[in-house]
Write a structure and sequence with these properties.
This protein is mostly helical. It has two domains: 1-89, no CATH class; 92-266, no CATH class. Helix content is 67%, strand content 0%. Helix 1 (3-25) packs parallel to helix 4, helix 4 runs antiparallel to helix 8 and helix 7 packs across helix 8 (242-256). The longest helix is centred in the last third of the chain and has 39 residues, at 192-230. The mean pLDDT is 93. The structure holds zinc ion (ZN). Zinc ion (ZN) binds at residues 39, 41-42, 44, 64, 66-67, 69.
Length: 266
């Protein structure tokens, strides 16, 4: 284990703590930067030493120091999961950026992780993919490719063009898919949020990566629905948060690259 892996894990846990703030405050339409966190029950300001990712939850045994009300286990779980997913960037191998220095790939991957984890949780909890994050993530994705172009081969916008094309393809494909879905099921099966999310993912993983992501999302969502029906955990016609499957498929494609999946499909 290299020292940078520990850094990545710690940075990831801190990002996860911030994601906890975002997913709590965004649906309430509160500012995500101000004020500092306070207990949701008694409103007592949380001191910095009670606000350390994961560690504080365990030291406080999952209870507020002031009023002893329970602090959800979801806080340390989100922080820990983000820590692990950010750490995995050390081993990631995204195809479109495979020529770039490892550090750039790690930084880009960390940004993508943060965006996709936030969206996956919001879609899971509220069936909501806020436009501020999908469009924001899309703009960041295109900007990242533009930065590579500007620093490498000035005047030749190959990365940026590829990124933009892939995101346009994401939008078109999803409206096409939801049109076909509507014709088959006679009700909307996917929302506009999914289209923007696939545009976002396209801007990060490129055209091939996007197609693999969508394929993987449908396969995993299909398996999930079939298992859910068999185990009677979900009902027929129950809505599923497709954005969760899209987000994690996008991340998996970013980590593993395209080749391994192309071998699986063909
Ligand atoms: Zn309290």
């Amino acid at each position: 284990m290299e020292i940078i892996e520990i850094y990545l894990f710690v940075i990831g846990c801190s990002i996860g703590s911030f994601i906890n703030v975002v997913i709590y405050r965004l649906p309430l339409n509160q500012s995500i930067v101000y004020p500092n966190s306070s207990c949701t029950e008694c409103n007592t300001k949380i001191k910095w030493f009670d606000n350390l990712p994961i560690i504080s939850w365990f030291l406080l045994r999952g209870k507020c120091r002031a009023c002893k009300s329970k602090i959800s286990l979801s806080y340390p779980i989100v922080a820990l999961s983000t820590g692990l997913l950010v750490w995995l960037n050390f081993y990631s191998n995204p195809t479109i950026y495979s020529q770039l220095p490892a550090l750039i790939i790690i930084i880009y991957g960390t940004i993508l992780c943060s965006i996709l984890i936030t969206l996956a949780i919001l879609d899971f909890k509220y069936f909501w993919l806020p436009q501020a994050i999908t469009i924001g993530g899309l703009i960041v994705g295109i900007s990242c490719s533009l930065i590579i172009d500007l620093s490498n081969n000035f005047g030749q916008f190959s990365y940026a063009l590829y990124s933009i094309t892939a995101s346009l393809l994401g939008i078109v494909l999803f409206y096409l898919l939801s049109y076909v879905g509507f014709k088959i099921f006679n009700k909307p099966v996917m929302g506009g949020g999914d289209a923007k999310l696939s545009a976002l993912i396209g801007s990060w993983v490129g055209i091939k990566g996007l197609l693999i992501t969508i394929w993987l999302a449908f396969v995993s969502a299909g398996i999930f629905v079939i298992l859910g029906l068999l185990l009677k955990k979900i009902k027929r016609n129950e809505r599923i948060p497709f954005g969760v499957f899209l987000s994690f498929s996008g991340l998996i494609v970013w980590y593993f690259g395209n080749e391994i999946f192309l071998k699986l499909i063909f």
